[in-house]
Design goal:
Layout (H helix, E strand, L loop, with lengths): L18 H14 L7 H5 L5 H12 L10 H14 L3 H6 L6 H18 L15 H21 L7 H19 L23 H5 L18 H11 L15 H24 L7 H4 L13 H12 L8
The structure holds a DNA duplex (21 and 21 nucleotides).
DNA sequence: AATTAAGCCAACCGCCCTCAT
DNA sequence: AATGAGGGCGGTTGGCTTAAT
């Protein structure tokens, strides 16, 4: 390694930037570009380390920074990309024009992560969480799935008993919670909602598809896990071939690598595109649809929207 | 009105990678 | 091959703001 951090130099200012410092940095970069970041502070008359200047510029002062709330589309893109790339914030930021890796990282940690946890989704694996305490958090999901039975009567063409399975699982889980609540700590991985003894354990499509990362979270009230509605339907649509349904998200390292390779290839192609056609504005959301391919036309957004709206008009056991 | 807790986010820290010598 | 400079990246911190008591 053999290099001391650039900020070790004594006497350099740290902490929040003043408007004057910002202006100096902007003026210098407008006139000369950033060049060597290490040399920049002296040239610009700033008592900061180069690294601090670079961060300030890339995360805040850059003219193409988009500020303000994230849109539903951006949020969805972040979730999709995170399920593929993990905490590769800079890669994710590369697909969100005007957003910085730092901003996306903060938004993930303060908003999206919490939403996923509240829905019983592990924000790292994007799969249903396996811990016992999650049973309680997942109850609304199960009840939502059970409530989905009403939908089935509205959509006669869907031939599946997923709602019945969910109801059975709900009762099963509640009984287990009552029976095992005193030994949660000692048996952290058994008798839980998605664990070994779960009735749904042998219904992988229901377990694994409970969360659909292609659905945006932004419209979801914290206590209304609408995503849970979509899963049983999708199970139904693939009922004929349950064993061969690909997971919505890559789980194994190999799968993850394959997906990342696909993205890299896409990026290379996109880069070539941009090179030959600078006006191109394609983004991941527009030309990467890794999950949509397995959803047939009947399961389009409008189709789900209609179903969700119908469901929301039904009495909701947890609505406040 | 005062205090405490929780949420948020800009900025920092330190490790890692690439490239030049 | 070894070393160091420069920069990128993800994780973490600390201070400010807002909400709750």
């Amino acid at each position: 390694m053999g290099r001391s951090p650039c900020c070790d130099e004594s006497g350099l200012k740290k902490g929040p930037w003043t408007p004057e410092e910002d202006q100096k940095l902007i003026n210098h970069i407008r006139k000369h570009g950033h060049g060597s970041w290490r040399a920049l502070p002296k040239q610009a008359g700033l008592n900061r380390c180069g690294k601090s200047c670079r961060l300030r510029w890339t995360n805040y002062l850059r003219p193409d920074i988009k500020r303000g709330n994230f849109t539903a589309e951006e949020e969805q893109t972040i979730i999709n990309l995170h399920s593929l790339l993990g905490n590769k914030w800079s890669s994710i930021a590369g697909h969100l024009p005007g957003r910085t890796d730092n901003e996306i990282k903060n938004y993930w940690n303060t908003h999206i992560r919490k939403k996923l946890i509240q829905m019983g989704i592990d924000p790292v694996t994007h799969r249903p969480r396996n811990d016992h305490l999650n049973v309680l958090a997942a109850l609304p999901q199960l009840l939502a799935a059970a409530n989905f039975n009403n939908l089935l009567t509205l959509n006669q063409n869907i031939q599946v008993d997923a709602a019945s399975i969910a109801k059975a699982q709900l009762l099963h889980s509640m009984i287990q919670v009552l029976n095992t609540s005193s030994s949660f700590d000692s048996h952290p991985t058994s008798n839980n909602l998605y664990g070994q003894s779960s009735f749904l354990e042998n219904q992988p499509n229901i377990n694994e598809d409970f969360y659909d990362p292609t659905q945006s979270l932004s419209h979801i009230n914290d206590h209304q896990p609408l995503d849970s509605f979509s899963s049983p339907i999708r199970v139904a649509s693939h009922q004929d071939d349950q064993s061969s349904i690909p997971p919505l998200i890559s789980v194994s390292p190999d799968e993850s690598k394959q997906t990342q390779m696909m993205i890299k290839n896409k990026e290379i192609m996109k880069h070539n595109d941009h090179t030959s056609n600078p006006s191109s504005t394609s983004t991941f959301t527009q030309d990467h649809q890794p999950w949509c391919d397995i959803i047939d036309d009947e399961t389009s957004d409008s189709y789900w929207k209609e179903i969700i709206e119908q469901t929301c008009s039904e009495p909701w056991p947890f609505r406040e």
